[in-house]
TrEMBL record:
<dbReference type="InterPro" id="IPR015884">
    <property type="entry name" value="Malic_enzyme_CS"/>
</dbReference>
<feature type="binding site">
    <location>
        <position position="280"/>
    </location>
    <ligand>
        <name>a divalent metal cation</name>
    </ligand>
</feature>
<feature type="binding site">
    <location>
        <position position="426"/>
    </location>
    <ligand>
        <name>(S)-malate</name>
    </ligand>
</feature>
<feature type="domain" description="Malic enzyme N-terminal">
    <location>
        <begin position="90"/>
        <end position="271"/>
    </location>
</feature>
<dbReference type="GO" id="GO:0004471">
    <property type="term" value="F:malate dehydrogenase (decarboxylating) (NAD+) activity"/>
</dbReference>
<dbReference type="GO" id="GO:0051287">
    <property type="term" value="F:NAD binding"/>
</dbReference>
<feature type="active site" description="Proton donor">
    <location>
        <position position="113"/>
    </location>
</feature>
<dbReference type="GO" id="GO:0006108">
    <property type="term" value="P:malate metabolic process"/>
</dbReference>
<dbReference type="InterPro" id="IPR001891">
    <property type="entry name" value="Malic_OxRdtase"/>
</dbReference>
<dbReference type="InterPro" id="IPR012302">
    <property type="entry name" value="Malic_NAD-bd"/>
</dbReference>
<dbReference type="GO" id="GO:0005829">
    <property type="term" value="C:cytosol"/>
</dbReference>
<dbReference type="InterPro" id="IPR036291">
    <property type="entry name" value="NAD(P)-bd_dom_sf"/>
</dbReference>
<comment type="similarity">
    <text>Belongs to the malic enzymes family.</text>
</comment>
<dbReference type="GO" id="GO:0005739">
    <property type="term" value="C:mitochondrion"/>
</dbReference>
<protein>
    <recommendedName>
        <fullName>Malic enzyme</fullName>
    </recommendedName>
</protein>
<dbReference type="Pfam" id="PF03949">
    <property type="entry name" value="Malic_M"/>
</dbReference>
<dbReference type="InterPro" id="IPR037062">
    <property type="entry name" value="Malic_N_dom_sf"/>
</dbReference>
């Protein structure tokens, strides 16, 4: 008997243990990924559901199925072929799909997510086999509620990921193919935080596309027209959010890969109204800040003293800047405007200054510097800023490869004992620097985290594992905490609590040569820590709506873990 079945919280609605009621029979059950067990159906289940003659006689365990599936997976040569194989498995057998992923997570993560998922998204219309998720058309806004009603009753959806596909994984506008990023993000919430796969909804808002390749592709499945912008676009987003919240009042809404000029203003609009999140802005900010806090601990620099330069001030860069400023505000008891003065943001025009006026996005304006401090006759490029500011931290979100040159890194290393350098741009080819160069140019003093996986670096007889700023160690736990507490909003304090919980897991806190962040393989345990921190903060702020949330830490952790879905076969009984 599992620990869930003996837990005092076993009767909670999301406590996925014990028998599972199934309404299907015979061929139908084999076609439903939620209930299909393939060769693992027991004799009793084969009799109950009239499956004899439809399956080979040998009954196998889930572990045996995982071995066979892994052998099949390994026979696929190219990453995209492996991705396609996994998508087919997900459509056939949900439990086996997730168990296979959990068993080989480190190996398969880049296949089901970045960078291979980007290739799948680019080829969505050509690889299309079976639709997954909800497709909403900007020309058909009056029927949003009708279409959403196909995906469950009001109590049945906990987590929605929605994208309009304008800025996907560093590959830009992918139109209707964005449904796959919504799907992929939800897969990660299940893998890393146990969000029930049957209680999720991936959504794409199809507003057209400005991608010429898609517009000229006869097989493209989305609206073959230029992107709709302005009032019609805003009305579409507003209507979706309004209808989704009415249809699924307990659902947490996760915005993903919206364009630069829409992501921040959509988040700013809905953040005070509903429990919502933007991973590109807040998730990236949280995981980067957690790595930075671990690095500051190693370098013995206080948060109220830190100087940060961010190179690349788009959605990700300003999201990181916001999260750092919010944390300084919370930890050092300073105003947001004072905290922002510790951050210097650089973009295509160079250092952001106030005289840029309307050229600045709303997110950039609060970080623009006074022109009198940076006269027009002074250079405002990265090297000049480094020379004048002497930052402790340099973060790259520019998608400008090799932008952190030897001159820049050596200049930074002249002025601080342990330069903290995070080249985060994805995919790997767009990284601002390679870790091996950063260690060499700083004589091994750099504290490094990257946006993609890199092999360990050997320098001066020591071996350094490189921390990856992988949002998947962070956003699933935040979502889990928000879902289980039924928080009315996701507050800034809740995000700071999440950052602290993630940062506390940094291996570098025990050994300065170890990574600044935990590995994604530990994400499920970390998600419990993060969810607990988020829930406690939600309760303290009076935002939690769920009743009977335990106050004792050990009870709270058990309460969370009982409600996390696991990839196990539950006994099936007739509905």
């Amino acid at each position: 008997m599992s620990s869930k079945e003996t837990s005092k919280f076993k009767n909670l609605p999301r406590a996925a243990s014990g028998p599972l009621e199934c309404p299907y029979d015979a061929k139908t059950i084999l076609k439903d990924a939620r209930y299909n067990k393939g060769s693992a159906f027991t004799q009793e289940e084969r009799k109950t559901f009239n499956l004899h003659g439809m399956l080979p006689p040998n009954i196998q365990t889930l572990e045996e199925q995982v071995q066979r599936a892994y052998d099949q997976y390994s026979s696929r040569g190219e990453p995209l072929a492996k991705n396609t194989f996994m998508a087919s498995m997900k459509a056939q057998n949900e439990v086996l799909y997730y168990k296979l992923l959990q068993t080989h997570l480190k190996e398969m993560f880049s296949i089901i997510y970045t960078p291979t998922e980007g290739d799948a998204i680019q080829n969505y219309s050509r690889l299309f086999r079976k639709p997954e998720g909800c497709f909403l058309d900007i020309r058909d806004q009056d029927n949003i509620d009708k279409y959403l009603s196909n995906f469950g009753k009001e109590e049945e959806i906990d987590y929605i990921v929605v994208s309009d596909g304008e800025e996907i994984l560093g590959i830009g506008d992918q139109g209707v193919g964005a449904i796959l990023i919504s799907v992929a993000k939800l897969v990660i919430t299940t893998l890393c935080a146990g969000i029930h796969p049957s209680r999720q909804l991936p959504v794409v808002l199809d507003c057209g596309t400005d991608n010429e390749d898609l517009l000229n592709d006869d097989l493209y499945l989305g609206l073959r027209q230029r992107r709709v912008r302005g009032k019609e676009y805003d009305d579409f987003v507003d209507k979706f959010v309004s209808v989704a919240r009415k249809r699924f009042p307990k659902a947490f809404i996760h915005f993903e890969d919206f364009g630069l000029h829409n992501a921040r203003r959509i988040l700013d609009k809905f953040q005070p109204q509903i429990p919502c999140f933007n991973d590109d802005i807040q998730g990236t900010g949280c995981v980067t800040l957690a790595a930075m806090m671990a690095a500051l601990h190693v370098s013995k620099v206080k948060m109220e003293e830190v100087r940060v330069v961010i190179f690349g001030s788009g959605t990700a860069g300003t999201g990181i800047a916001d999260q750092i400023a919010d944390t300084i505000t919370t930890e050092a008891h300073r105003s947001k405007s004072e905290a922002s003065k510790q951050i210097w943001c650089i973009d295509k025009p160079g250092l952001l200054v106030k005289s840029l006026g309307e050229k600045l996005t709303p997110a950039q304006k609060s970080f623009a510097r006074e022109d009198e401090d940076w006269p027009a006759d002074e250079s405002r490029d990265l090297l000049s800023v480094i020379k004048k500011v002497h930052p402790h931290v340099l973060i790259g979100t520019s998608t400008k490869p090799k932008a952190f040159t030897e001159d820049i890194v050596r200049e930074m290393a002249k002025h601080v004992e342990r330069p903290i350098i995070f080249p985060l741009s994805n995919p790997t080819r767009l990284h601002e620097a390679e870790p091996k160069d950063l260690y060499e140019w700083t004589e091994g003093r750099a504290l490094v985290a990257t946006g993609s996986p890199f092999p360990p670096v050997e320098y001066g007889g020591a071996k350094y594992d490189i921390a990856e700023c992988n949002n998947s160690t962070c956003f699933p736990g935040i979502g889990l905490g928000a879902v289980l507490s039924r928080s009315r909003l996701l507050s800034k304090k809740m995000l700071v609590a999440a950052v602290k919980a993630l940062g506390a897991r940094a291996p570098a806190l025990q050994d300065s040569n170890e990574p600044l962040l935990p590995d994604v393989e530990d994400a499920r345990e970390i998600s419990v820590d993060i969810a607990a921190a988020v829930i406690k903060c939600s309760v303290d702020e009076g935002l939690a709506q769920e009743e009977d949330i335990p106050t004792k830490d050990s009870d709270l952790r058990e309460w969370i873990q009982v409600q996390m879905w696991e990839a196990i076969y539950r006994p099936l009984v007739k509905a």
